[in-house]
Structure formats: structure tokens, C-alpha cells
Amino acid sequence: MERTLSIIKPDAVAKGVIGKILDRFESNGLRIAATKKLQLSRADAEAFYAVHAERPFFNDLVDFMISGPVVVSVLEGENAMQKNRDLMGATNPKEAEAGTIRADFAENIDANAVHGSDSVENAANEIAFFFAEREIS
Ligand code: CMP
After folding, report:
1. 9 CB near ligand 1 (under 6 Å)
2. How far is residue 60's CA from residue 48's CA, in Å, rounded to a whole number?
3. Strand pairing class (114-116; 2-8)
4. 130: Cβ–Cβ under 8 A, 6 or more apart, which residues?
5. Domain extents for the chain?
């Protein structure tokens, strides 16, 4: 069964919508195989988003991701990576379709409520970044 990584970002955690977002996953056929709340260090955020290191928004992204705790989860199901991306909606909430997580809970392209892996290969790396295999079941 396919797996993907989800992060509920500091804006959504601060708003108190962890449960509402996790419910979107479970109500749409994505099983929560692992989940935990944690505060990322600057080094964590820089390493996790290393692929974006040269992008102009990198420093703002890292600052935002360490501004408060996040909830990281492993989601499992058929086509889990794409299904999670469909549930999240477009990266920029202004472009996100009605009824998606970002349309309903996100503020702007930086504080956009959730992250989801963008390929099955990246999902495996992102899951390994946060979870030991024994934490996933
Ligand atoms: P995420 O899926 O977590 O991956 C990288 C994040 O960078 C993205 O969501 C956005 O929150 C943030 N970001 C800020 N500006 C941009 C941009 N111009 N293009 C893509 N991502 C951006």
C-alpha cells in the first residue's frame, strides 16, 4: 500500500485544526499509519527543505516552519501521495479549489496549513526523515 508524508504546519496547529485536518485524511480513505507533534529546529527545517535552498522564499519558509510546533504523519492508502495532494489543494490557497484543506484553513502561500510529498520517491525519503520503521504500523 502506498505511503506519503503529511505535515500540518504551524499556522494550522496554532489555529486548533489538527483534528479537522486529520479527519479529512481518514474520511477520504487515507489511514494514519504514524503521527506525532514536534517542534522543528532550524537545522531540521533547512535539511527537510534542502531542495528549495536556492529559492528566494527559502529563509521565510524555514522561519515559518520553526515558528511553532508541527504535526507530521504517515498516510497510507491507494494512491496516497496524489490523494493527499488532491485533498490539500493548490500550494497557493488563493488558487485552491473550494473544499480543499488549503482553501478552508490556509492564509497565504507561506502559511498554507499543510505540506504533502510531491512524488512517491520523495515520500519515502520524507517519511524516513521523521520516522523510524518501528513507529509506522
Ligand atoms: P510546501 O509544500 O511545504 O513546499 C515548499 C513550501 O514553500 C510551499 O509548501 C509553500 O508554503 C512555500 N512557498 C513560498 N513561496 C513559494 C513559491 N513561490 N512556490 C512554491 N512554494 C512556495
Report:
1. no
2. 14
3. antiparallel
4. 5, 36, 72
5. 2-132
* H or E element that contains 60: helix 58-65
Atom of ligand 1 nearest to the CA of 65: 3
ipTM, two decimals, is 0.96
61 lines ligand 1 (CB under 6 A): yes
103 lines ligand 1 (CB under 6 A): no
Q: Which residue has the cell 510546533?
A: 69
Look at residue 99 in the predicted model and tell me its pLDDT.
Answer: 98
Residue 3 labelled as part of a binding site: no
CATH number of 2-132: 3.30.70.141
pTM over 0.90: yes
